[in-house]
User: Fold this.
Amino acid sequence: MSRVPITVMGFRCERCDHEWIPRGGLEDEPRVCPKCRSPWWNKPKKVMMPYEDFRDRIVRTLKEAGRPLTWTEARTIAGLHQAFPNNQWVHRLEKDVGLHRQRESGGVIHWQLKTSAAGDLFESTPPEVADQGGAPSRRKQGAVE
Ligand SMILES: [Zn+2]
Assistant:
């Protein structure tokens, strides 16, 4: 006789960790946890969005857009609540995922990812060579002829 674990799908309450098997099947999401009666049993406790979440959403949004976006466009598509980007996080994005902010002549700032392989979040990109003094014009990044 062989013994195998049989897995039954159920729910777990995010508040009290109670686990249960629903009587009516998984399609019917319970409104409250049967133990602690919390209606937020399905909502994680954390209130603040962690940086990692912010980073992943921005990366996904910029990749899917396939073009530079303004902060307003990016935050609308990504569903972020912040009216303004958190400066510290923006600097971390520049380091972590190669975020590049391009200020256009009209003062509009466009966000884009320098590398197409933004999936490699932990690949360290060497800093660009600083402007040589007196260089007539900057080469445009990523321009393809
Ligand atoms: Zn509960």
Strands lie at 11-12, 19-20, 69-70, 99-103, 109-113. The CA atoms of residues 11 and 105 lie 53 Å apart.
